[in-house]
Design a protein that fits this description.
Length: 281
């Protein structure tokens, strides 16, 4: 099991000159680098390119999986840098293998002209919910005790998840990166909920799943060391794909939102892993 210091270490990118940096990866038993880690590293890289601004949104396409044990090469190209807004492209490679490419929008916030937000859902009291089987440094609790890994548990394509990283440092960019890390893990399972005989425990084993694109938008500053409520819904699944979205609340305030497109399909003939194995994307 990894320590929280290991996660913070992979977010501490090593400068390599001319908008480039390198980073390592956590081995979390998925067979490939967890997509949430790549999202988090992209946010850190984009923020470092414009230290006078904060990341407003990140749109990422996952082109190929990244291998465990091979260093990541991260390249930032500044597309525009103005007084209030800036944009940059962030590309993560391993050698000649392009893994992800993201477009980041950065901004210096302006005073309110208008303001509104939806009400936060009633996710219950996270302190009274059972912890999920995540590393000790990542506290995850699912409202209603829903187990998205259970193929026999059927419910609506909705999922409220409480999450926090109790030892997160008081740094705005790190909090954004940690939310990005957390945001990657639940929308495929949310899409599976209405379908009997399908559960997240089957992913990479008997069902072929992966994240295709992920867009994360930040609305307000957030503190990843304190409870965040991730309110998911997956309004569409079909043609081997899923579409989901979530709003993120802290203390009743809408602090972020994200949208994900993913793949949920049978393995192509001859590509299913051997019994007891997991697919590697």
């Amino acid at each position: 099991m990894t320590d929280f210091a290991d996660l913070l270490a992979v977010l501490d990118l090593t400068p390599a000159g001319d908008g480039r940096s390198t980073a390592d990866s956590l081995d979390e038993g998925h067979g490939v680098v967890f997509g949430g880690q790549l999202l988090a590293q992209s946010i850190v890289a984009a923020a470092a390119a414009m230290p006078d601004k904060e990341v407003k949104s990140l749109h990422t396409v996952f082109a190929r999986g990244a291998a465990i044990g091979t260093p990541l090469d991260i390249e930032v190209e500044v597309l525009h840098q103005g007084r209030a807004l800036g944009s940059a492209s962030v590309t993560i490679r391993q050698g000649d293998r392009l893994c992800t490419r993201a477009t980041a929008l950065l901004h210096a916030p302006d005073p309110d002209l208008i303001r509104h937000q939806p009400d936060a859902p009633d996710g219950g009291d996270p302190e009274g919910l059972a912890r999920s089987a995540t590393p000790g440094w990542w506290d995850v609790r699912v409202a209603g005790g829903v187990d998205i890994s259970d193929p026999d548990l059927v419910g609506p394509a909705e999922l409220d998840v409480w999450t926090r990283f109790p030892d997160a440092p008081a740094d705005p960019t790190t909090s954004q990166a940690l939310l990005a890390y957390a945001s990657d893990g639940f929308l495929i399972g949310t899409a599976m909920r209405p379908h009997a005989g399908v559960g997240q425990s089957m992913a990479h084993v008997s069902i072929s799943t992966t994240v295709l694109s992920h867009t994360l938008t930040f609305h307000e500053p957030l503190d990843a060391s304190r409870w965040l409520l991730l309110a998911h819904e997956a309004p569409y699944a079909g043609r081997g794909r899923g579409y989901g979205r979530a709003n993120v609340f802290q203390d009743g305030n809408l602090v972020a939102s994200y949208v994900q497109e993913n793949m949920i399909r049978d393995f192509p003939e001859g590509q299913a892993p051997a019994a007891g194995g997991r697919a590697k994307h």
